[in-house]
Amino acid sequence: MNVLKVKNYDEMSEKACSILLDKINSVPHPVLGLATGSTPEGLYKKLIEEYRSGEVSFKDTTTFNLDEYIGLSMDHPNSYHHYMKDHLFQHIDIDMEKAHVPNGDVTDVQSECKDYEKIIHENGNIDIQILGIGTNGHIGFNEPGTPFTSRTHIVNLAESTRQANARFFGSIEDVPTRAITMGIETIRESKEIIVLVSGEKKAEALSRFINGDVSESFPASILQKHNNVTIVADEAALSKL
Ligand code: F6R
């Protein structure tokens, strides 16, 4: 894994933006894997700025988000559909038919998982996947203990994840208990992976991610075995290495 050290959150977002722009501008029909949460917000802001200044068009881009809560409607303010629309999609020229986020508001969630996996494959898999990392090592919503061979599936969210995400909801009780996530195997099939890590609260996780054993108890560790991973991390996140 290649580690790019940057000063702070802003530089991390800048670097991630320029990596994505290079990909979008060099592949005829780029397929991007996208994440939500606090980490990629700065990246999305920069992508919008680049779009507004005419540096990039998303017309030919297809996107797949990593995950979505089960039980929230698409227009719920805390759904990842809403997050993506708000932070990126409504500000750029992407064809919304090509902007995929799992739908957690369906009666047959199993079929939704199968279909999501199928469309990713039909699009030739992901060219470049953006990931954040949970303090417990989760990637997407693949919590510790998830098999490395998993495909898009339903997860029970770890208590620590619900607690971490309660900041977006009024209280922990309002955070859904289940979600759909791309599986670890699905993520591993991405041709290139960019992991963004910022802040001291991620320092322990980043250290284990880079130097720890490859183990299902720390899902991100499997990326040590991928042949094209770049970690863009700021000084605070790298402070425990
Ligand atoms: C979000 C996702 C999660 C987050 C992780 C870090 O789509 O899949 O794995 O990347 O929980 O979240 P933040 O960036 O809020 O610290």
Highlighted features:
single chain; alpha/beta; 7-stranded parallel sheet; Rossmann fold; 241 residues; binds fructose -6-phosphate
Approximate shape? globular
Structural class: alpha/beta
Number of strands: 10
Task: Output the CATH topology.
Answer: Rossmann fold
Measured between the Cα atoms of the first and last residue, the distance is: 15 Å
In this structure, how is the largest beta sheet organized?
7 strands, parallel
Radius of gyration over C-alpha positions, nearest whole angstrom: 17 Å
Structure overview:
With 241 residues, the chain is α/β, with parallel strands linked by helices. The chain has one domain (2-234): Rossmann fold (3-Layer(aba) Sandwich). The protein is 30% helix and 17% strand. It contains seven helices and ten strands. It has helices spanning 9-26, 41-52, 80-87, 109-122, 159-165, 184-188, 203-211, and strands at residues 2-6, 31-34, 62-65, 67-69, 99-100, 128-131, 153-156, 178-181, 192-197, 229-234. The strands form two sheets. A seven-stranded parallel β-sheet has the order 1-10-9-6-2-3-5, covered by helices on one side. β2 (31-34), α2 and β3 (62-65) form a beta-alpha-beta unit. The model has no long low-confidence stretch (mean pLDDT 97). It binds fructose -6-phosphate. Fructose -6-phosphate binds next to loops. Fructose -6-phosphate is lined by residues 35-39, 66-67, 132-134, 138-141.
